[in-house]
Design brief:
Blueprint: H1 7-21, H2 26-31, H3 33-50, H4 64-82, H5 89-107, H6 110-134, H7 140-146, E1 152-153, E2 163-164, H8 186-202, H9 211-228, H10 231-246, H11 255-275, H12 281-290, H13 302-320, H14 322-327, H15 346-354, H16 356-374, H17 377-393, H18 400-415
Antiparallel strand pairs: 1-2
Helix pairs in contact: 1-5, 1-6, 3-5, 4-5, 5-18, 6-8, 6-9, 8-9, 8-10, 8-17, 10-17, 15-16, 16-17, 16-18, 17-18
């Protein structure tokens, strides 16, 4: 009996899994950034060599996406020279790897990418929820007992304590209140879940799923977001739900999704108005991070300070030494600026390292590409708001799923007509 392994499907699932590891995944943490990003680039290069049609358009010329990556390579080379090495090769390759990995992930099989991405995310959500809720029904001693047979990554390698396991079955024993699964912390995990939610609700017609599957997946993802308890995650969820309700009728796949969203909104309002107290998720994850004790908006408290203060420091830096902000100082140059270090605000980190002349055109081009090829202004607004929230809420200078959310329509457009044209010569 011969067992045939579907090469395209296997490669695409591997690429999707690796892209999720960018959020502080256990494989990423184990290998370290230098090895992980190098392997990610090698994987992308292998896919491009395996399916060389991804490099060219129908006219046998370098396609626009690959040309854009080549332009970025030139920019980073100039930036390394301009900053006298403070813009490191490692940082440059890290950014480039995100664009290449997302491109090959989608391009391998554009018509099935979203379905496989959603299914893998839902699998992660299911496993993480089972582990999370098992602690509340007395399974913690069992997890402690079997932890010795799992690979342990100590807390010194990431925030949040020790984790056990590597690939799919991953758990930790010293932070049972929030669900971060295999990722660095809850705020990173929510970015994956919200990205999946967006595709499920806005690209539902492209998914090879039944209506019943979509509703089950929607409920599971919403439950997972509640267990994650991330303020940034709740904000993205509000944006997604609001934008779904604002869509013109011609974009709505069915009324069931709308009913579920309205039901969720009513349930949350009922909970907040009647049942929520100062120890509730609402107060801990949202209210206390935005409002002061007297009910006034105050972003200078809790984790909100870490997100908002870098803006003031960057503005001061722009006033004192504008060239540092305009052209960037690289990763090693942050210590020489007013900002002084890698902050909790990813957008500020990105601007300070790469410069306004690189970051602003990049975001404009990606947003314009989504608007042009996505052909849904409401979806484009939703994506931009999600990406801005992710950029501000996490220290990652450029979330890999910011690239996916903004560029998916364009990548799909330039690759789906050539999906079966493998080239081996």
């Amino acid at each position: 009996m011969t067992i045939k392994i579907p090469k395209i499907k296997t490669l695409q699932l591997l690429c999707i899994y690796v892209s999720m590891q960018y959020y502080g995944g256990r494989i990423y943490t184990l290998l370290g950034s230098a090895i992980f990003f190098s392997l990610s680039l090698m994987l992308s290069a292998f896919v491009l060599a395996f399916k060389r049609k991804l490099l060219f358009n129908a006219n046998k010329k370098i396609n626009g996406y690959i040309f854009g990556v080549m332009v970025m390579v030139v920019w980073f080379a100039l930036s390394i020279f301009y900053t006298m090495g403070n813009m490191t090769v490692g940082t440059s390759l890290s950014i480039l790897s995100r664009f290449l990995l997302i491109y090959v992930s989608v391009g391998l099989d554009p018509e099935n990418f979203l379905t496989r991405f959603v299914k893998m995310t839902v699998l992660f959500a299911f496993i993480s929820d089972v582990i999370y809720f098992s602690h509340f029904v007395g399974f913690t001693p069992i997890w402690r007992g079997i932890s010795r047979i799992f690979y342990r990554i100590p807390s010194g390698m990431y925030f949040g304590g020790d984790t056990y396991g590597l690939f799919f079955l991953v758990f930790k024993l010293d932070d049972l209140a929030r669900n971060s699964y295999m990722f660095g912390e809850p705020g990173e995990y929510q970015m994956i879940i919200n990205t999946c939610l967006y595709f499920l609700l806005f690209e539902g017609k492209s998914l090879n799923l039944t209506r019943k599957q979509k509703m089950i997946y929607l409920c599971l993802l919403l439950i997972t977001l509640v267990t994650i308890q991330s303020t940034s995650g709740f904000i993205s969820l509000v944006v997604i739900m609001g934008m779904v309700l604002l869509q013109p009728n011609r974009f709505k796949e069915n009324q069931s999704v709308k009913k579920v969203i309205v039901l969720c909104i009513c349930a949350v309002l009922l909970y907040v108005l009647i049942f929520a107290d100062e120890t509730s998720i609402f107060y801990q994850s949202f209210y206390r991070k935005i409002f002061s004790a007297d009910g006034q908006i105050d972003l200078q408290q809790g984790t909100a300070t870490a997100r908002s203060m870098p803006y003031y420091l960057m503005a001061e830096n722009l006033w004192q030494n504008p060239l540092q902000v305009i052209f960037g100082v690289g990763a090693n140059g942050l210590a020489q600026t007013v900002v002084g270090r890698y902050t909790a605000n990813g957008l500020v980190n990105f601007i300070m390292m790469c410069g306004l002349v690189f970051v602003v055109p990049l975001y404009i081009l990606m947003s314009a590409g989504h608007f042009q090829y996505g052909k849904n202004p409401v979806a484009t607004c939703c994506v931009i708001l999600i990406c801005l929230n992710q950029s501000v809420g996490q220290p990652d200078m450029l979330s890999i799923y910011t690239v996916l959310l903004l560029l998916y329509p364009y990548i799909f457009q330039i690759t789906h007509n050539r999906k079966n044209e493998l080239c081996y010569e």
